Amino acid sequence: MKDFFRTILATLIGILIAGFVCSIICIGIITSIITSSSSETTVKDNSIFVLNIEGNLMERYTPNPIDQLLGENITTYGLDDILSSVKKAKEDYRIKGIYLNLKSFSYPPASLKAIHDALQDFKQTGKFIIAYSGYYTQGGYYLANAADKIIINPSGHIMWHGLSAQTMFFTELLQKAGINMQIFRVGNYKSAVEPFTQTQMSEANQHQTKEYIQSIWNDLLSDISSSRNLTVEKLNSLADRNMDFQPASSYIKEGLADTLMYQDEVLSYLKSLIGCKETDKLSTLSLNEMIHVKPLQIPHKKDNEIAIYYAYGEIDNGTGYYGEGINSEKMTKDLRRLREDKQIKAVVLRINSPGGSAYGSEQIWREVSLLKAQKPVVVSMGDYAASGGYYISCPAHMIIASPTTLTGSIGIFGMFPDASELLTNTLGLHWDGVKTNRLSDLGALHRPLNEEEKALIQQTVNEGYDLFTRRCAEGRNIPLNKLEEIAGGRVWTGKMAKELNLVDELGGLDTAILHAARLAGLEDYHTASYPSKADALSMLLEEPVHSYIHSKITQTIGNSYYGLFSTIKNFQNNDRLQTCLLYTSPSPRDRTRSR
After folding, report:
1. How many CB atoms lie within 10 A of CB 236?
2. What letter would DSSP give residue 465?
3. Over the stretch 565-593, which tens digit does the pLDDT of each residue have?
4. 225-244, pLDDT tens digit by residue?
């Protein structure tokens, strides 16, 4: 018996010691992650910034410590990090140039435009940019045109075929499952409901989509035509031939690229550009290292601050506090703090949202209006500022958009599923119950809406649309009848929206900051970003599991596809009145692979 208890005691002590050791190891790993994420990078003389463009892009991104603990290798970057790193490389005399290493990625057009313009600005210093890839996506080729030289692998390809926009339709799938979507909307162009009610694009949606992708394509052609000294007609002619499968030599012949090199030859070429010997080691900085390079310190007045507030993702349909999504309650509180902070003289709202909850959009609109009454507010639109994204933009003093931003979509809709066929006819389930009033069970899944309920919901949708259009008309100082002519749920690019007075000027975040400073009468100022990014420890302790899962799915399949699935996933929790644009924009994602 003594031996038995001695064995039990020894086992318990062993478990406690093992648990203690594991805890120490975990704490050590977490501490190492936190330390490495905040350590400053030292820049050597004659360095080259190696900018790898691959994977997925978010407006802002903080590496998830869970990924680092698990050794995940899904590549996601923050647009803010890329732009700030290019700017730091421009200002740092020790960095001689940028090596643009283009791989497989999925970045929306407006983000590509922002990176392209930042690279063009970098070149104004006289420093070099060299682009290289074995396989240029169309978006990658657009970025490469900001370089001094475009190099392609002798076995490589350049995708050049034009743009297309695709929408996935769930209607027949839902019908086979026995689910009928009951739709209420205002605006012939409000196409967000079409995937659940049709099997092909409506004539109105086809018309608007063709126009906005043509606008995006024209902007892309204009930039490439200027940098490559090729006419737009020539570029279109090459796209008609679909250059994706041509031999590498043809890209040189047609003027799309400058020379053929293998990767080792590119490295030798880079060494020659900075005066290194072939045997010397090339001093390089990755994007992650550039993020931790301390920018040059320029003294500014402490109390002259321009706040940049980032609002991105769906409104109230997102994933939580740190996930990509706009929480209207949190955003209104944040804006209230910015309004009350006397050191903040102006606010730039960086909006990248396809919309979402009509109720949440109205609450944010109210706080933006209050903010505007006290200090200048300038909106900088990202890839999307449509539907609810435009709703929360319209009160600002000025709206700045990229030429390829998708905006407008001033419309509203509601969706109520009727699953009676699935539940009763297929599964054999039956319902019975009691109610105190005639419409107490409105929205029950096991039966369709009656005519009185449909009229009531449509009335609410109409009222929501009237409020939306009135907000936009007042904010943009456009007569209501004129505003309604360009509303109706129609999507516009930033370039088209400027002609309609929906935006004031074309440009990026820097343009918005300059206008905010001008409106505030500031010559000496500094900028600060809000809300502050979560540190590694906060993310470990506070990020919900569902937020982490959401981020993994989004990183894997991209926003273009996940937008549709997100609508279904969040259906029961969503505000039933939505001002949302589903993701149907052209994507530069690879479609083919050469092996």
Report:
1. 14
2. H
3. 555 555 555 555 666 665 454 544 433 33
4. 999 999 999 999 999 999 99
Task: Read off φ and ψ for residue 501, nearest 5 degrees.
Answer: 70, 20
Q: Report CA-CA distances (Å) from 307 to 231, 330, 527.
A: 42, 16, 6
Whether the Cβ atoms of residue 392 and residue 380 lie closer than 8 Å to each other:
no
Number of Cβ atoms within 10 Å of the Cβ of 410: 32
DSSP, res 313: S
Catalytic residue, candidates 85, 361, 387, 420: 387
Q: How many CB atoms lie within 10 A of CB 197?
A: 17
Is the pLDDT reported for residue 445 higher than 70?
Answer: yes
Tens-digit pLDDT profile for residues 69-105: 554 555 789 999 999 999 999 999 999 999 999 998 8
Handedness of CA 95, 99, 103, 107 (dihedral sign): positive
pLDDT at 65: 57
- Fill in the DSSP letter of residue 424: I
Evaluate the CA torsion angle 139, 160, 353, 499 in order and state its sign.
Answer: positive
What's the pLDDT score for residue 550? 56
pLDDT tens digits, 12-45: 666 666 666 555 655 555 555 445 555 788 899 9
Catalytic residue of the set 90, 113, 190, 271: 190
Question: 412-418 and 305-312 as β-strands: parallel, antiparallel, unpaired?
Answer: unpaired
Question: How many helices (H) does the chain have, and how many strands (E)?
Answer: 22, 18
Residue carrying the six token digits 């086992």: 11
Q: How would you label 56-87 residue by residue, b for 16+ Cβ within 10 Å and e otherwise?
A: bbbbbbbbbbbbbeeeeeeebbbbbbbbbbbb
Whether 538 is a known active-site residue: answer no
What ranges make up the beta strands (E) of 339-462? 344-353, 377-386, 398-401, 406-408, 412-418
Cβ contacts of 401 within 8 Å, gap of 6 or more: 380, 381, 385, 407, 494, 497, 498, 503, 505, 506, 507
Tokens 């419409």 correspond to 439
Lowest mean pLDDT: which of 7-11, 128-132, 145-149, 245-249? 7-11
DSSP 354-382: --BBHHHHHHHHHHHHHHHTTS-EEEEEE
Q: Cα–Cα distance between 466 and 459 in angstroms, integer? A: 11
The answer to whether residue 387 is catalytic is yes
Helices (H), 160-286: 171-177, 203-228, 232-241, 248-253, 263-273
Amino acid 350: pLDDT: 98
Q: Indicate left, alpha or beta for 157 from its phi (over 0: left) and psi (-120 to 50: alpha).
A: beta
Q: Residue 465 and residue 412: Cα distance in Å, rounded?
A: 6
Query: Would you give the distance in Å from CA 423 to the centre of its chain?
Result: 38
